[in-house]
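Problem 12. The chain below contains 135 residues. Write out its predicted structure in token notation.
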Amino acid sequence: MACRAVLLFSLAMILPAAAQNVPPLTGMPCLQKGAVSEFVLVHGARMLIVIDRQHRQYRLNFASVCTLLQIKPSLGFITLNPSPYACLTRGDSIYSSTDEAAQRICRIQSIEYHNDPPPDDSPPPPPVARGRGTG
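Solution.
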């Protein structure tokens, strides 16, 4: 009987915790600079979609157009907190490893969860020729 009570109690504790990670994510986003896995630059160079190691997506909006991330570089972050577990916040900066000597940075204006699929940067497929076949 006591074993049943412990089992029910443990299930009651596990199920709500598992349901909290289901997208769409809401609340205050915490993108840790040490957990960045990949990123996609959105056309217009005013935002960056970043995916962390837990496959959560974040949208980083820049204060101005950020042209230094056009090539696929590795990213570096300038934050007030040097810990790799610190959350990126408004006012932190991103720089490109390919442009590190020029000291150009992109300042973060806001960070939000990005609950949509990441944008596809591949060109559209070529048009299919229509008409009658000859042969």
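Discussion. The longest helix spans residues 2-19. Students who got a different answer should revisit the alignment rule from Section 12.3.
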